[in-house]
Amino acid sequence: MAQYGKPEYWEDRYQRDTEAFDWYQRYTGVKDIVTQYISPNHQILNIGCGNSRMSEEMYEERYEYVTNVDISFTVIKAMAEEYEGKCPNMHFKQMDVRSLQFDQGTFDCVVDKGTFDSILCGDGSGPNSDQTLNEIYRVLSPTGVYICISYGIPDTRESYFRNNAFDWELHTHKVAKPTISTSAIVSSEDKDPKNFHYIYVMRKTVGKKGDE
């Protein structure tokens, strides 16, 4: 999976694969958790949007103020053309999540479905993950929330998010993978981490360092 951390991999992928594709979960699989933390009037940043239908499905449920960024020029151009008419408040910008071209405190929420995972797969994952989290923290409003949807279990992810550089509260949720029967999990009290995706929610706290 090391190729997932390389920008050229994604550019090549989106030149070849133009069909919509959602990593991990569709919006319906995570919305009961995501909507606990966001409101329709929020400014939302979707990082590493790819050609996912996540933003479209959120838009259809009145979460219209979504800015989508991806490192691939190809996919951003295609998505901007796809949604220009039907989702006028939704924007697409080519951007590296390690260097977000937005002012401090611009967004109420940052949504990440698989992007942080991809960064951890690549070379230089340590400094790259630090830069990514620093940028996410910077562009969030003083009460903003970062929602990271991941295949990584808490033992491999929470240490990144509990960094003392960030004044936010961490909440960890999990949802069954779409290929797993929810009723089967409930009935068997399945605790196998491989059967779940994890949703890490980091909410900034008011008046802490970095928010002045």
- Percentage of residues assigned to helices: 25-40%
By DSSP, the count of extended strands is: 7
Principal-axes geometry comes out as globular
Please trace the helix and strand order, writing H or E for each element. Answer: HHEHEHEEHHEHEHE
Query: What is the CA-atom radius of gyration, in angstroms?
Result: 17 Å
Q: What is the residue-mean pLDDT, rounded to a whole number?
A: 89
Poorly predicted parts: 208-212
Portion in beta strands:
15-25%
Task: Find the structural class using helix and strand composition.
Answer: alpha/beta
Kindly report how far apart the N and C termini lie. 39 Å
Total number of helical segments? 8
Query: Describe the biggest sheet?
Result: 7 strands, mixed
Observed structural traits:
8 helices; disordered C terminus; alpha/beta; 212 residues; seven-stranded mixed beta sheet
Topology:
Elements: H1 7-16, H2 27-34, E1 44-47, H3 54-59, E2 66-70, H4 73-83, E3 91-94, E4 107-113, H5 115-121, H6 125-139, E5 140-150, H7 154-161, E6 168-176, H8 182-188, E7 196-204
Helix pairs in contact: 5-6
